[in-house]
Amino acid sequence: MFSAARRRACATVAVIIAAVLLGAVPPALAHGFSSTVYAGLTSPEAGHVRTELRLEYDLLVVSAADYEKDDALFRAGTAAFDDGDAKDQAAALDRHADSVVAYVTRRFGVTAGGRACTPVRDGDFTIERREKVPYALLVLDYRCPSSAETHEVRSGLFPDSEDYVRDTKTIVTYDLDLTSGSTALDAEHQSFSTRQSGAERFWTFLRLGAEHLLTGLDHILFLLALVVGSRRLREIVLAATTFTLAHSVTFVLAALGLVQVPAWFVEPVIALSIAVVAGWHLWRLWRRRSHATDLRTFGRGHLSLDRAGWTRLAVVFCFGLVHGLGFASALGIDRAWSWTLLWSLLVFNVGIEAVQLAIVAAVFPVLALLRRRRPVAGLWTTGSVAAAVSVMGLVWFVQRTFET
Fold first, then answer.
1. Other residues' Cβ atoms within 10 Å of the Cβ of residue 67
2. For residues 379 and 401, what is the distance between their CA atoms, to the nearest angstrom?
């Protein structure tokens, strides 16, 4: 049986870990979600900016209908969304194109040399899917002063009066004014100029990478599973480095258009990876039973890892590749030879790594101290955390596998 001191130690560690997780996930996550808009801007000729906007279909319908008081759009759009018919969804938007375009152009705009460009819709709406979610493609042709040397882009799309949208990231790629690049806009940073400095783009994607990991509970739980399953600093360093290398490889391959894996495969596998890595620690505890407090993965081989240690790293690497696909999808990397986003991806990755290191630095020393001072209490604490994380991963795996 546990002594009172050991029970207090376990409770203390549990509170610390919970605090880290709650601090990592914004409170707003409990009552809303984030949306992502993808915008691609090119200039076929002087005075002409062609803009391809991809917006979440259901949010677009609800917001445009509310803004324009278009009840018919709401009824037709939501019915098509519930039926899951892409043709009906596009048709609903086409029939109410005036309401939709009015909503979008009020919140997304292009200026040239300080003067507003005039938008005109080009073609009908089309529907595509991203992360199992229908997106509407709207093409706008902006007519601008041909003498302008600098363009500015502004985006305030979502949230509106609804309470269920917390924030929207607008991922912008552009090839304008003899320069190409990418940036991210949100509620706090709603505009940018094509003359934006490299330092401004760096901080934009560094912040975006950090926020993506902080708001991605599945990635945080995977990292936590690695931490609780590592007994020595070398173990977690090797595991974290392996994970980083793996998802960095996937970043580059996705940016080059060499790898395209559908979300219906990526999302369940990410959930499965959480369950497997956490379950690995539980299996090792069960296998050693009464000797579990002496559990270690070091041997006399290269890097002092035994066979089990190398197998664990191989598993982490494989799952890291899949997590990298999930990270890349956050920036809309789905086009071949997307060099304009490669630099942004690398900075985005740096933001992810910064948060990973912060979580490891906050959790691992506490667990290491508990294991040293109270081995049995440390054993039960890591086992309990691993069990909870594994169950959550399995629940997500089932949900994502059978999700329509």
1. 17
2. 32
pLDDT value for 332: 59
Three-state SS for 117? coil
Tell me the one-letter amino acid at 143.
Answer: R
pTM: 0.63
Question: What's at 53, amino acid-wise?
Answer: L
Alpha-carbon radius of gyration of the chain:
24
Cα angle 326-332-338, degrees, rounded to a multiple of 5: 110
Please give the distance of CA 82 from its chain centroid, rounded to a whole number: 25
Whether the ω angle into residue 159 lies within 30 degrees of 0, i.e. cis, is yes
Task: Encode pLDDT of 91-118 as tens digits.
Answer: 999 999 999 999 999 999 999 888 899 9
29 or 96: which leads in pLDDT: 96
321: number of Cβ within 10 Å: 19
Nearest CA among 347, 316, 144, 345 for reference residue 243: 316
What is d(CA 271, CA 63) in angstroms, rounded to the nearest whole number?
A: 32
- Return contacts of 119-125, CB within 8 angstroms, 24+ apart: 119/51, 121/97, 122/50, 124/90, 124/94, 125/90, 125/93, 125/94, 125/97, 125/100
Q: Is 55 exposed, middle or buried (0-12, 13-18, 19+ CB in 10 A)?
A: buried
Model pLDDT for residues 143-197, shown as the tens digit of each residue: 988 777 788 999 988 866 555 566 788 888 888 866 777 777 877 778 888 777 6
> Confidence class of residue 45 from pLDDT cuts 50, 70 and 90?
confident
CA-wise closest residue to 226 among 293, 277, 295, 284: 277
Cβ(375)–Cβ(358) under 8 Å? no
Three-state secondary-structure class, residue 150: coil
Q: With H, G, I as helix, E, B as strand and everything else as coil, classify residue 257.
A: coil
Q: How far apart are CA 399 and CA 115, in angstroms?
A: 49
Measured torsion, CA atoms of residues 373, 377, 383, 384, in degrees rounded to the nearest 10: -130
Q: How does pLDDT run across 199-238, given as a tens digit for each residue?
A: 777 787 788 778 777 777 888 888 898 888 887 888 888 8
DSSP H or E segment with residue 180: strand 179-185
Maximum CA extent, the chain: 80
